[in-house]
Amino acid sequence: MFLAVVLTGLFSVTALLALIRLYRGPSLLDRVVAADMLLATMIGAVGAEAAVNRHATTLPVLLVLSVLGFVGAVSLVRFVVRES
Hints:
- The protein is mostly helical.
- It has helices at residues 2-24, 28-53, 59-83.
- The radius of gyration is 15 Å and the shape is flat.
């Protein structure tokens, strides 16, 4: 149970810092990287919850979040390459 409390605290601090960077910017790339970091934090939190509670029912959620992060990163690269 101690591990779950520590992980919750660490993921909460990480998410808060990513949200601050997402809000403050200053550029679009900073905001996109912060959103990707927030998504990675969510993936880590869901994975940690599944590991602590010893169940695999959240694997489809992890898969969808991972694909969402990949598609977002690829679309950002295509957008930046097209702009320059």
